[in-house]
Specification:
The complex is a heterodimer of chains A (335) and B (304).
Chain A (H helix, E strand, L loop, with lengths): L1 H6 L8 H7 L6 H47 L1 E4 L3 E5 L3 H7 L2 H32 L6 H13 L2 H11 L6 H8 L11 H29 L3 H9 L4 H12 L1 H16 L3 H6 L16 H11 L3 H32 L1
Antiparallel strand pairs in A: 1-2
Chain B lengths: L1 H8 L26 H25 L19 H10 L5 H32 L5 H12 L7 H11 L16 H14 L2 H9 L4 H30 L2 H6 L7 H10 L6 H31 L6
Helix pairs in contact in B: 2-12, 3-12, 4-7, 4-9, 4-11, 5-7, 7-9, 8-9, 9-12, 11-12
Classes of the chains: A mainly alpha (335), B mainly alpha (304).
């Protein structure tokens, strides 16, 4: 864009199309170019910032914000794949939701898996980060391997874990057999299936969180530890009384991120089901809310009801975020 | 990134500002020594991290009975090529299409996200315009939105556009990312000095040229990491392709899931071969760019 303007300083041939309007006023042309250049610069500085941010906001509005808000609209209608919009029904879909045992079961599963996945995940990550926060041989290698699960394909690994958790032929039951534990029905039993799915999730996320904690640990000034050591505080005590409090913002951050992610849990349990129905086991032992949305919308074609479930999930995520924010500000003001 | 390695080798160094007595660095300062127990814990972690991937590869190179053999075989067998041929010939999986689709979609999305996000990030970090603060806040808010919630209307939108079952349905909705804009904005703010931009402006650079010639070169490290993460996320996307595409035109994840859910034959060596291929491109990228990724996470720059 600027090239023709720059060349404007040089003789005519560069600007044949506009040349006509300016006629033979060759001597006056440098001045006109200057002026146009000034106008152009002004336009450029005024408009460019908006042009630069426009793609993000436009695409987000169409493919992010619109679907989110339209979910509410759809949820207030009897709306199906085949029949399309069959009329406004107010809060009927939500009333149905309140009385739907499948929904409460899915919610229970989602929260249950979330709890038994996230708590050990963050504790192990803290412990690992503390372990890595030493003078080590092969430090980079260890870090790379820790992050390796995080970059692998979720569905692929879920397939592998599904086989490992097989009741009859799975290696995990085989291994447990040596400890004298009878084969566990990982798919059939509700809480066993939660544990299996939680293990898949944690396998992926422990190392990632450990690296985030490690980064935060290295920012803790070393002389705090020195002073504590001089006062005779044990390593254990230093960990609980210095490291953990200093890491509080980071820990809160990882809790929030895990919450938003885990409440939408889908891939691991749906692959673990191995039947493609999204039913989450014969009795819905491990059907999550997102799986229920998928089942309603894709298998039964109930867009309206599916949207109501989605919106309930959205409100839940918002609620959790607010609780998180309140808790973390209280913790902050307390310390 | 270099800052990280400095902090670890010489604690007290760049953790600057702190008192001077951290000078005593006989062989590395105050950082604790690793004990044998440390290494044992780490080696167990390494084994647990690697095992599922190794097992995937082992079964993929053997015949299906290997998955249930007792005691298990833990070394690769000789069926790699055979299983690979079976995988690509399998009509349920449409694996070739899936692999191609995923490569196209992930690359396109990664390039677009890096471009659009660095453009917006640059504007929000360095350009002066009305509403800049509000726009920045809006970007941060979008990061917290659980987008999966909008899956049903998004499907309807795809139907209206006639994109259902077409590759663009897994590309176009993902061309931008709030996280990307935010990350780029932070990076531009930290690395591109205002004087450099002013000098470029005085030299008559248009705003876009400033972006292209001054900002982009400085952004290289952040672009690599954002590109890598975006490629990975797109490659791994599961709910959405499962809803928007179909078995005839799948992504690689949908394709391996086809093998997983086909009730008649749970052919493990085939499934694991598919899983291996679904993981391979990510592994290659990780080997090439993994150090940068670890570096960025350690800097606290990646929080998604």
């Amino acid at each position: 864009m600027t090239t023709p303007l720059k060349r404007g300083g040089a003789p005519p041939p560069a600007v044949p199309p506009t040349g006509g309007s300016r006629g033979a006023a060759a001597p006056g042309s440098p001045k006109g170019t200057e002026e146009r250049r000034f106008l152009w610069t002004k336009l450029d500085t005024k408009a460019s910032p908006y042009l630069f941010i426009a793609p993000f906001f436009i695409l987000f509005a169409i493919f992010g914000l619109f679907p989110l808000l339209y979910t509410v609209w759809v949820s207030l209608h009897e709306w199906s794949l085949i029949g399309g919009n069959e009329g406004f029904v107010g809060l009927d879909n939500y009333a149905r939701l309140m009385g739907d045992a499948k929904f409460w079961n899915a919610l229970y599963n989602t929260l249950g898996i979330f709890l038994i996945a996230v708590v050990p995940q963050l504790l192990i990550a803290l412990f690992l980060a503390d372990t890595l926060n030493r003078r080590l041989r092969g430090r980079t290698m260890f870090r790379m391997v820790l992050i390796l699960p995080y970059i692998t394909s979720i569905a692929a690994v879920a397939i592998v874990f599904s086989q490992l958790f097989g009741t009859q032929y799975g290696l995990i039951n085989y291994g447990l057999g040596f400890l004298g534990i009878d084969p566990i029905d990982w798919r059939g039993e509700k809480y066993a299936s939660w544990v299996a799915i939680a293990i898949m999730i944690d396998w992926r996320w422990v190392g990632y969180n450990a690296l985030i904690y490690l980064a935060a640990m290295q920012a803790v000034p070393k002389d705090v530890y020195e002073a504590a050591a001089l006062d005779g505080a044990s390593r254990m005590r230093q960990f609980w009384q210095i490291t953990i409090p200093m890491l509080r913002p980071t820990i809160i951050f990882t809790v929030i991120i895990s919450t938003i992610g885990q409440l939408q849990l889908f891939t691991e349990p749906s692959v673990f089901g191995t039947d493609g129905t999204m039913a989450g086991g014969t009795q819905g032992q491990f059907q999550t809310v997102m799986m229920l949305v998928f089942q309603e919308a894709m298998r039964y074609g109930n867009y309206g009801y599916g949207a109501a479930i989605s919106w309930a999930l959205f409100l839940l995520v918002v609620l959790f975020s607010i609780v998180n924010a309140l808790l973390s500000s209280r913790i902050r003001s307390a310390s | 990134m270099t800052a990280t390695s400095l902090t670890t080798t010489r604690p007290g160094g760049p953790a600057a500002g702190s008192p001077r007595r951290t000078r005593k660095r006989k062989g590395g300062g105050t950082m604790r020594e690793a004990t044998p127990l440390t290494y044992i814990a780490l080696i167990i972690t390494v084994l647990l991290s690697v095992f599922p991937l190794w097992w995937m590869f082992v079964v993929a190179t053997r015949d299906t009975s290997a998955a249930s053999q007792r005691p298990p075989t833990l070394l690769p067998g000789g069926n790699f090529i055979l299983n690979m041929e079976r995988l690509f010939a399998n009509t349920t999986a449409n694996f070739t299409t899936g692999l191609t689709n995923s490569l196209i979609a992930s690359t396109t999305v990664a390039v677009a996200v890096v471009f659009f996000c660095s453009l917006a990030g640059f504007a929000l970090a360095k350009l002066r315009f009305k509403g800049r603060g509000a726009f920045t806040v809006a970007v941060v808010v979008t990061m917290a939105v659980p987008v999966q919630v909008g899956i049903i209307p998004l499907l309807m939108l795809m139907d209206w556009l006639g994109w259902r079952g077409e590759l663009q349905s897994v590309i176009v909705p993902f061309l931008v990312s709030g996280f990307g804009v935010f990350m780029m904005r932070q990076y531009v703010e930290q690395t591109v000095p205002d004087e450099l931009l002013e000098a470029a402006r005085i030299d008559g650079c248009s705003t876009f040229r400033m972006y292209w010639n001054v900002v982009l070169p400085a952004l290289r490290p952040a672009m690599i990491v954002l590109g890598l993460l975006t490629f990975m996320t797109t490659w791994n996307e599961f709910v959405w392709p499962l809803a928007a595409l179909n078995a005839d035109n799948p992504t690689v994840q949908v394709s391996i899931n086809q093998l997983n859910v086909s009730a008649y034959s749970r052919d493990f060596s085939l499934m694991f071969m598919g899983s291996t291929f679904a993981t391979l491109p990510l592994l290659i990228l990780f080997i090439v760019f993994g150090r940068q990724l670890v570096g960025r996470i350690m800097e606290g720059a990646i929080k998604a």
